[in-house]
């Protein structure tokens, strides 16, 4: 009953997400199914594990509250001021409208490889991507897939050196560095990027042939992509974006280059940024929004209104994402989940394949790559090291494995992205699923096979 209840809860959550049922309600209902079938006390399951545990809804919402608010405000400011449209017009003019997906993927990849949190990338890129799609007449569903490819695949789990949490967790647990198994990482990253771009371009051409074009969502503020008197020049429009990204990346860059001062105010700021991976980018986004308000004359007299509208934009994505995390908080408390961990360790599969399956399933159940990886490292990693898997290879293979089945329809990041872009699973998940599940799993299995023969 425990196993069936666990599978039924997960399957029901995926089914309801695909059917467009409110994800808050769906997470509560499916959490109830899991709790009842596994004999968990209902009050404890929802008041502690769902709401306030390490993977709790409000634990996540409290941790990321300011980041979501700051990101949404910045996105609203860049859209309302027509700054995003100005940048998009310039990019299209120089690179061509057909390069909109390439621009999105490469921009997102540079941001996440530089250490920018995925949720920040979603908010920061959306107003620019919206304008690019309008000019290129590309369906919004493909922007979601391009965003997912650049921000949620090879730069998070495969490329050596990435500062993402998926790369940091195994480094801390295994005592390896962020460049562990660089050959496997580069191979996996190249496969993900190559297959992903080939898929996106094929879908773009197919959409164009079928007459499918850009359609804005009900709350999208996208202007006609025609230069107007109140549109800032692209040189002015890009200043807030450069400021935000520069503020986020500069402390890490100074530390990497070894030129950061050891004492003084600047040293204190750099240290603060290092130990505040969520608050620091939030502060950068807020300051960037203030700078944009001061720079763009067409926002005069309505600044508080735009800031307020941006704040409202953040609430639903934050709650939807947090609710799915809360469901995972119930799941990891079940007997079925604990028994699964033991079963995988004694499955008789080759150790590397068993480790891949373990991380994949845990990440799928929790809907979180970092959550799945954290659970694996704290409960199963030592056993796999004892089986003879080199620590560096275990680091890279499990990091890549965590970024595959975590992106099933109930994944928090997927929910956030679809909510922000105002698309449903039915409209966009097929493309997102190919990019974030099928291709990363394929790349990881290829790397796994290569590691077993060399």
Secondary structure: elements and pairs:
Blueprint: H1 2-18, H2 23-37, H3 42-50, H4 57-80, H5 83-95, H6 100-113, H7 118-136, H8 140-152, H9 154-158, H10 165-174, H11 182-209, H12 234-257, H13 265-275, H14 279-295, H15 303-331, H16 335-345, H17 351-366, H18 369-379, H19 381-386, H20 391-402, H21 412-421, H22 425-453
Helix pairs in contact: 1-2, 2-3, 2-15, 3-15, 4-7, 4-14, 4-15, 5-7, 5-12, 6-7, 6-8, 7-8, 7-21, 8-11, 8-22, 10-18, 10-20, 11-20, 11-22, 12-13, 12-14, 15-21, 16-17, 17-18, 17-20, 18-20, 20-22
Helicity level, as a percent range? over 70%
Shape: globular
Mean pLDDT: 85
Structural class by helix and strand composition: mainly alpha
Q: Counting H and I runs of at least 4 residues, what is the number of helices?
A: 22
Q: Count the domains.
A: 2
User: How would you describe the oligomerization state of the chains in this entry?
Assistant: single chain
Largest sheet: none
Distance between the termini: 43 Å
Number of strands: 0
Characterize this entry briefly:
The protein has 454 residues and is mainly alpha-helical.
Structure description:
The chain is mainly alpha-helical. The protein folds into two domains: 2-57 and 320-453, no CATH class; 65-169 and 181-313, no CATH class. It is 76% helix and 0% strand. It is built from 22 helices and no strands. It has helices at 2-18, 23-37, 42-50, 57-80, 83-95, 100-113, 118-136, 140-152, 154-158, 165-174, 182-209, 234-257, 265-275, 279-295, 303-331, 335-345, 351-366, 369-379, 381-386, 391-402, 412-421, 425-453. α10 (165-174) packs parallel to α18 (369-379). The radius of gyration is 22 Å and the shape is globular. The two termini are 43 Å apart. The relative contact order is 0.16.
């Amino acid at each position: 009953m425990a196993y069936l209840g666990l599978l039924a809860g997960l399957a029901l959550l995926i089914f309801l997400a695909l059917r467009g049922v409110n994800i808050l309600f769906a997470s509560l209902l499916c959490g109830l199914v899991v709790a009842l079938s596994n004999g968990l006390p209902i009050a404890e399951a929802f008041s502690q594990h769902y709401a306030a545990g390490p993977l709790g809804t409000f634990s996540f919402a409290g941790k990321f509250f300011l980041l979501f608010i700051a990101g949404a405000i910045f996105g609203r400011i860049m859209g309302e001021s027509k700054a995003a449209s100005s940048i998009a017009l310039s990019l299209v003019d120089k690179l061509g409208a057909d390069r909109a997906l390439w621009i999105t993927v490469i921009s997102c990849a540079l941001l996440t490889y530089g250490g920018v949190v995925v949720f920040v990338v979603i908010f920061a890129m959306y107003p620019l991507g919206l304008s690019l799609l309008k000019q290129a007449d590309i369906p919004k569903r493909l922007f979601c897939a391009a965003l997912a490819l650049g921000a949620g695949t090879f730069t998070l789990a495969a490329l050596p050196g990435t500062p993402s949490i998926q790369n940091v967790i195994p480094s801390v647990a295994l005592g390896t560095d962020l460049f562990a198994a660089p050959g496997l990482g580069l191979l996996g990253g190249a496969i993900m990027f190559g297959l992903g771009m080939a898929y996106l371009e094929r879908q773009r051409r197919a959409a164009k042939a079928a007459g499918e074009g850009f359609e804005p969502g009900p709350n999208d503020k996208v202007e006609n992509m025609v230069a107007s008197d109140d549109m800032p020049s692209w040189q002015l429009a890009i200043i807030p974006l450069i400021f935000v990204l520069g503020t986020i990346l500069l402390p890490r860059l100074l530390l990497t280059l070894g030129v950061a001062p050891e004492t003084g105010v600047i040293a204190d700021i750099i240290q603060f940024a290092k130990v505040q991976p969520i608050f620091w980018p939030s502060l950068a986004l807020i300051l960037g929004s203030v700078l944009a308000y001061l720079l763009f004359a067409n926002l005069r007299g309505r600044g508080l209104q735009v800031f307020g509208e941006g704040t409202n934009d953040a609430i639903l994505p934050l709650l939807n994402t947090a609710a799915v995390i809360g469901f995972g908080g119930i799941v990891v408390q079940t007997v079925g989940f604990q028994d699964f961990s033991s079963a995988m360790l004694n499955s008789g599969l080759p150790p590397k394949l068993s480790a891949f399956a373990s991380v994949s399933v845990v990440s799928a159940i929790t809907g979180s790559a970092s959550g799945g990886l954290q659970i694996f490292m704290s409960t199963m990693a030592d056993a796999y090291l004892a089986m003879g898997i080199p620590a560096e290879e275990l680091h890279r293979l499990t990091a890549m494995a965590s970024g595959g089945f975590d992106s099933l329809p109930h994944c928090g990041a997927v929910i956030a992205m679809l909510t922000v872009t105002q698309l449903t699973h039915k409209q966009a998940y097929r493309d997102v699923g190919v990019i974030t599940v099928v291709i990363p799993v394929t790349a990881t299995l290829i790397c796994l096979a290569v590691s077993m023969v060399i």
